[in-house]
């Protein structure tokens, strides 16, 4: 568990304790106030849960912290080993209908800039389609291609491979 | 919003005035039978004649750079003629010149000058060309290039391209700038500059406008910018990518690539941004359109058959026919000005190299020795192919003659250069 998640849980606990005390010590308090306090506690708990959820996107032990899908040269198929990663993000998006992602397609710096721009677009769309199959709405996914424009100055396959990629980026990041 | 727009316009205006570092051109190789030519300094004073920017030195450098001429050292000849009457042909036969260029530069009031030149055949001892220009100081370089073009055409039978311009993208200090320079790399002017990538510049056939792709809106959008006023307009900003602009030979339309419906497909749009029509239909990538010089066909890259290959389609629509068959990866087609040759990037066992294909016979030859080549395009006379490559980890431009004999390298000390495109002859 990371720090921010722990903080959120503690905070939620403290808030809950406060509202309990309020009820116990002032039994004659107006109902509306108690309801308001309960509502505040509920919102706080919800916010804490949301923060915990967002934290899961950054938690290195959580698959959601992995954001890059890698491709073979001149290919745009999402390879089986990246299905679990894309599905995990699809599940997250389904559970958080207000979250949005941009899928950014990239290519290595070999060949044609324009062809690579199209290839990057195909890669981002391929990742989006896997998410669509899992039920994620179009409105939650934007695709963009940088082609080879963000590629590294590579000379060997180990380096090229890092650039043949689609990144999943959340809009709040 | 208005303020923002005004600011952008202002920036463009400012950048269009700023001059950048120049490209340096290095020549490697030359034609088998170079024409030996002597260019006698035009200026009367030796100090003026020695300047690199002197008209005769620019003519000399142009002819030499073409690879078709062997420019001879003239300083050893005692008699340096400026007029035909003073020419002793035996002097020039003595240094084995076949052609001789002489001339004069005469200052006129009001920062103007009169330039006269003559081209002489040393073997036949007769005059081939004679011409006089009255110009301003700032027209000096272009006038020298025009004289070099006339000499080149008279002696080779081909049109010269010294008085043309090239464009390219320079990446330096995290900024991209689209530059237009003279064909010899001098006088670079920034057309537009951005923190986001600029790619795929395409000259209008009359040389007054450039279409290009800018990522400044965080996605590729096509702009058309006037090289005269510096003003620009959005040609295409549809949903998805807008890229790969290519002017039709009559300048009325552009072929562009959109991902509007799904995959990259080729569309035709009027130069004012109206009348969008889809040209290609495939479930794969269709991109990098280029028109045949008669406007009848559009060549393009497509991976509809698996890997990327070059196809062509009637520009009025119809069936696409595959054009390249050697190798698994052929991209970035450009047709020669006479419509007979196709240059493109071909992947072979050593890397990505410039290839040239005879459209009628289908015969393919690889023309470059570099291995990370991109974006080849023909000079307006079809003799040279200008392309981008990588030398020692640095983006560099290079040029190779269609016959493979003449090779040049164009570098910018200040940055990575890429995305070259040779402007039209005016």
Protein model, in words:
The complex is a heterodimer of chains A (173) and B (426). Chain A has a domain at 53-173: 60s Ribosomal Protein L30, Chain: A. Chain A is 52% helix and 13% strand. Chain A is built from five helices and four strands. In chain A, strands 1-4-2-3 form a four-stranded mixed beta sheet. In chain A, strand 2 (101-106), helix 4 (113-133) and strand 3 (141-147) form a beta-alpha-beta unit. Chain A is elongated, with a radius of gyration of 22 Å. Residues 1-27 of chain A have low confidence and may be disordered. In chain B, strand 4 (99-108) and strand 5 (112-121) form a beta hairpin. Residues 6-19 of chain B have low confidence and may be disordered. In chain B, helix 3 (55-65) packs across helix 5. Helices cover 13% and strands 45% of the residues of chain B. Chain B has two domains: 3-21 and 164-422, TolB, C-terminal domain (Neuraminidase), CATH 2.120.10; 35-156, Rossmann fold (3-Layer(aba) Sandwich). Chain B has a five-stranded antiparallel beta sheet, with no helix packed on it. The interface between A and B is medium-sized, with 22 and 35 residues.
Keywords:
heterodimer, A: 173 residues, alpha+beta, 60s Ribosomal Protein L30, Chain: A, four-stranded mixed β-sheet, 4 strands, elongated, disordered N terminus, B: 426 residues, mainly beta, Neuraminidase, Rossmann fold, 2 domains, five-stranded antiparallel β-sheet, 5 helices, 13% helix
Structure summarized in a few sentences:
The complex is a heterodimer of chains A (173) and B (426). Chain A has 173 residues and is an alpha+beta fold. Chain A is built from five helices and four strands; from the N terminus they run ααβαβαβαβ.
């Amino acid at each position: 568990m990371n720090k921010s998640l722990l903080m959120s849980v503690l905070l939620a606990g403290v808030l809950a304790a406060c509202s309990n005390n309020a009820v116990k010590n002032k039994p004659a308090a107006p109902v509306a106030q108690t309801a308001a306090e309960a509502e505040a506690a509920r919102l706080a708990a919800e916010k804490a849960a949301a923060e915990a959820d967002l934290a899961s996107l950054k938690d290195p032990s959580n698959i959601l912290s992995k954001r890059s899908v890698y491709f073979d040269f001149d290919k745009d198929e999402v390879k089986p080993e990246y299905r679990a990663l894309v599905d995990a993000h699809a599940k997250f998006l389904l559970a958080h209908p207000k979250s949005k992602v941009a899928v950014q397609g990239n290519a290595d710096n070999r060949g044609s800039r324009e062809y690579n721009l199209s290839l990057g677009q195909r890669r981002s769309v391929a990742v989006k389609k896997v998410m669509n199959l899992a039920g994620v709405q179009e409105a939650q996914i934007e695709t963009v291609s940088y082609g080879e424009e963000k590629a590294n100055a590579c000379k060997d396959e180990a380096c090229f491979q890092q650039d043949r990629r689609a990144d999943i980026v959340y809009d709040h990041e | 919003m208005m303020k923002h727009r005004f600011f952008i316009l202002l920036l463009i205006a400012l950048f269009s005035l700023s001059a950048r570092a120049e490209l340096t051109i290095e020549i490697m190789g030359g034609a088998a039978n170079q024409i030996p030519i002597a260019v006698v300094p035009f200026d009367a004073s030796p100090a003026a004649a020695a300047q690199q920017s002197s008209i005769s030195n620019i003519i000399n450098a142009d002819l030499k750079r073409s690879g078709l001429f062997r420019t001879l050292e003239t300083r050893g000849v005692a008699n340096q003629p400026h007029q035909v009457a003073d020419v002793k042909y035996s002097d020039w036969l003595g240094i084995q010149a076949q052609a001789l260029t002489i001339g004069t530069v005469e200052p006129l009031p009001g920062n103007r000058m009169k330039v006269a030149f003559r081209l002489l055949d040393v073997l036949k001892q007769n005059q081939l060309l004679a011409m006089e220009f009255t110009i301003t100081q700032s027209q000096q370089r272009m006038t020298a290039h025009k004289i070099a073009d006339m000499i080149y055409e008279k002696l080779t039978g081909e049109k010269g391209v010294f008085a043309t311009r090239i464009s390219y993208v320079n990446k330096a200090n995290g900024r991209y700038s689209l530059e237009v320079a003279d064909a010899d790399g001098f006088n670079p002017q920034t057309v537009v500059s951005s923190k986001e990538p600029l790619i795929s510049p395409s000259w209008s056939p009359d040389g007054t406008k450039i279409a290009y792709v800018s990522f400044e809106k965080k996605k590729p959008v096509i702009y058309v910018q006037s090289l005269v006023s510096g003003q620009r307009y959005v040609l295409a900003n549809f949903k998805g990518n807008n890229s790969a602009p290519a002017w039709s030979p009559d300048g009325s339309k552009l072929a562009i690539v959109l991902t509007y419906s799904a995959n990259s497909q080729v569309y035709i749009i009027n130069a004012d941004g109206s009348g969008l029509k889809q040209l290609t239909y495939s479930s794969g990538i269709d991109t990098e359109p280029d028109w045949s010089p008669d406007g009848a066909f559009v060549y393009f890259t497509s991976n509809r058959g698996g890997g990327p290959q070059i196809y062509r389609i009637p520009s009025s629509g119809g069936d696409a026919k595959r054009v390249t068959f050697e190798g698994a990866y052929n991209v970035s087609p450009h047709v020669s000005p006479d419509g007979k040759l196709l240059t493109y990037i071909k992947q072979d066992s050593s890397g990505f190299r410039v290839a040239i294909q005879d459209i009628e016979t289908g015969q393919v030859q690889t023309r470059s020795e570099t291995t990370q080549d991109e974006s080849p395009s023909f000079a307006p006379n079809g003799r040279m192919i200008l392309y981008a490559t990588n030398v020692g980890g640095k983006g560099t431009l290079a040029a190779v003659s269609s016959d493979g004999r003449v090779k040049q390298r164009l570098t910018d000390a200040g940055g990575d250069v890429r995305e070259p495109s040779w402007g039209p002859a005016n």
